[in-house]
Amino acid sequence: MSFEFSPDPTYHFRCHLVLEHGGEFDTAVDDPLLLRDLAIQYLLHSAVISMRGQQVKDTVYRYFRLDPSSIHLTDAYGLTPVHIAFGRANPDAVAALLALGGASELSNAHNKGGMTPLQYLVRDMQLSRRFHETTLGQWGGYADDQLICEFLARRTLNSSSTTCNLKEFIAQRKWGCTCGICAGGWLSKRMRFQLKVQAGFCIDMMMSEKWVFKDDEVIDDPMDLMDLSTSYIPEHLYPSFNKTFYEGFQSVFVMTELLLEKRKEAFTKDVVARLIAGRDKVRFFLDEGGKVEHVLDAITDLAKGESSLGDGEFEETFGEDAEYVKLPTCDNDLALGLVRRMLGL
Questions:
Q1: CB contact set of 178 (below 8 Å; sequence gap of 6+)
Q2: What is the pLDDT of residue 23?
Q3: What confidence tier does 17 reach under pLDDT thresholds 50, 70, 90?
Q4: What is the pLDDT of residues 222-238, one digit of tens each?
């Protein structure tokens, strides 16, 4: 068995156990300690890395009975077993360590990374999210083990963010909410504002283009319209692109904007569909192949293009807007990829 510790400058914290007989000790930094010294001195650190469930609980308690100070022992980088347990998002180890007095380590930032156990955990969660969103193109939310560890830390620290129970905490934080009031745990108030603004912009542009239509004739090329939202209508629907179709398309934007103004109501494809049901012009739009998804696709994609992820026009226009500025900030304020996933796009 060999113990390998590898701090990564981009993650600040990385450690893992190599369970291979005769395996070579390898590290990303020059470590003055020999493999044997590591294995002997940091057995509890090793256990927290390699074990889960009841096994790690039993091991933590066994080491504590042998030496109560073992849960406070620091390695060559100033990290205690508590730091390791949070860095590995090992909830069983975290629970056992906190129960035995490890809570005092939650404020300990005296290590090479200069962070507390909770800060290591949150940093790793955020970096993992960023990697999945930017590199893999899709993020499945925070893992339950990560959230359980965060909950245990915040509850121990008497944080106001843990007035709820574990189930409620996981539901609220699963999709990265840091403001505590994201609708469904994923739609922040600032994101909702941006989407509402974009829906209103599309409506105004469509109003200015209605003069192009003559009676109910199909226009030659919808892409000639100045309205950007038209580009989200598939070409195979162009033979139906008359004034009634266009007005039905616009009506979906109108109802979507109204929904986004109702900040307590869920923003979903199904709710939009329910709001537009039965409207004559919308019925024609839907009967001809138009979909709610075309509207949601336009709003979210155009919002991304004008956000700080794109040309930044939204921030330039609303960065000092009184209504927008007073809204709480959240890690989900620019999570347009997540919004699209939640809307089924």
A1: 330, 331, 332
A2: 33
A3: very low
A4: 888 888 899 999 999 99
Burial class for 290, CB neighbours closer than 10 Å (0-12, 13-18, 19+)? buried
**pTM for this structure?**
0.78
Q: Which helix (H) or strand (E) holds 273?
A: helix 269-276
Measured distance CA(14)–CA(5) in Å, rounded:
7
C-alpha span between 153 and 117 (Å, rounded): 9
Question: Quick count: other Cβ atoms within 10 Å of Cβ 306?
Answer: 20
Helix locations, 5-99, DSSP H: 35-41, 43-50, 53-66, 81-87, 91-99
Q: How many C-beta atoms lie closer than 10 Å to residue 192's C-beta?
A: 21
**CA 19 → CA 54, 61, 101, 174, distances in Å?**
19, 22, 29, 32
Q: Model confidence over 106-160: pLDDT tens digits?
A: 999 999 999 999 999 999 999 999 999 888 888 999 999 999 999 999 999 986 5
User: Residues of 59-96 as b/e, b for ≥16 C-beta within 10 angstroms?
Assistant: bbeebbeeeeebbbbbbbeebbbbbbbbbbbbbbbbbb
210 secondary structure, DSSP code? G
DSSP conformation letters of 280-312: HHHHHHHHTT--HHHHHHHHHHHHHHHSTTTT-
Alpha-carbon separation of residue 335 from 62, 161, 213, 328 (angstroms) = 44, 21, 37, 15
Give dist(CA 98, CA 118) in Å, integer.
13
Q: CB of 212 within 8 A of CB of 222?
A: no
For the cut 50, the answer to whether the pLDDT of residue 19 exceeds it is no
Q: What is residue 25's three-state secondary structure?
A: coil
DSSP state for residue 230 in the 8-state scheme:
G
User: Kind and range of the H or E element at 121?
Assistant: helix 117-131
Instruction: Name 212's Cβ contacts closer than 8 Å, sequence gap at least 6.
Output: 219, 224, 225
**In whole angstroms, how large is the CA radius of gyration of the chain?**
27
The encoded tokens of residue 72 equal 């406070």
